[in-house]
Amino acid sequence: MPGPGTVRYGGNTTCLEIRSGSDIIILDAGTGARALGKALLAEFGHRPLQLNLLISHTHWDHIQGFPFFAPIYEPRCRLTIMGCANSRPSLEAAFAGQMETTYFPVEFEKLASQIDIQELPERDFAIGSTLVRAHRANHPGLCAGFRLQTPAGTICFFPDTEPNAGGDDRSMLDFIRAADVLILDSQYDHAEFKKRAGWGHGCVDKSVALALEAGVKKLILFHHDPDHDDKKIDLLLRHAKQIVIKKKGSLRVEAAREGLVIRLSGKKRVK
Ligand SMILES: [Zn+2]
Ligand SMILES: [Zn+2]
After folding, report:
1. Which ligand sits nearest to residue 137's alpha carbon?
2. What ligand has the least distance to the C-alpha of 223?
3. Could you tell me the distance, in angstroms and rounded to a whole number, from the CA of residue 47 to the centre of ligand 2?
């Protein structure tokens, strides 16, 4: 939650940006989308803007920033939204639904930008020079995680997922194997996780274990609990690093924070 307790890690919900050459891929449209939209318009000025928005799922914290994403009001912006529909009949219905007049003053159909909505294909697909593959996450409803293979490195993004109760995460392990960056739901500490099994979120201990086993280079602890403040996240991060030391691993761990930029091969960045 935003406030004095979260000034370092931030209080917005999920929204990340990947730049690969001239390709712009946005991962989810949580409340962080507002600041990203402003930054993109400031950067591009009056030039046309081509954006790709990949949606893991349509839970509110992953789409509620969309109506506040300024590029959607600009005719010079082309936006391709890709994701799965969850329980609504279509992905478009989920996006348009949250902009019905009950909830928002501007309706989806009236947006000035050129928006193309596509359901996720079954197979791998390309966004410019990035190859994208989806994998089902263990989360209520339909929720995907993505493996994005850019020319500069591989990023795996699982914002909302719970480790399988039986401990069999074999397909997940294969999916994330050797990723340069793994952005993974690590919402709870071990005690909280035990109390909230079945809620569809992760645990720091299990995230680190999974990343170590999969040979991931960098793990980003993600989807911070709304009740966790900066101090608590510091503690979780320290705990994660201690596990890595104990296991003599080379995995690097960071906690996601607003404005964090990661460069792959010195050129690419994940925001
Ligand atoms: Zn969710
Ligand atoms: Zn979420």
Report:
1. 1
2. 2
3. 33
Whole-model pTM: value is 0.95
- In the chain, which residues have pLDDT < 50? 268
Q: If you search the block for the tokens 């009949």, which residue do you land on? A: 89
Q: In what order do the strands lie in the sheet with 130-136?
A: 125-127, 130-136, 144-150, 153-158, 181-185, 218-222, 252-255
196 CA distance to ligand 1 centroid (A)? Answer: 14
- Cα–Cα distance between 26 and 127 in angstroms, integer? 11
In the block, residue with structure tokens 């069999």 = 168
Structure tokens at 233: 């996240």
Distance 62 CA to ligand 1 centre (A): 7
Residue 267 token pair: 């050129």
Q: All domains of the chain, ordered by start, with CATH? A: 4-270 (3.60.15.10)
CA 180 to CA 36: how far, in whole Å? 24
161 Cα: distance to centroid of ligand 2 (angstroms): 9
| Residue 148 · residue 154 · CB < 8 Å | yes
CA of 76 to the centre of ligand 1 (A): 31
Distance (Å) from CA 179 to ligand 2 centroid:
22
Token pair belonging to 4: 């004095």
Give the pLDDT of residue 243.
98
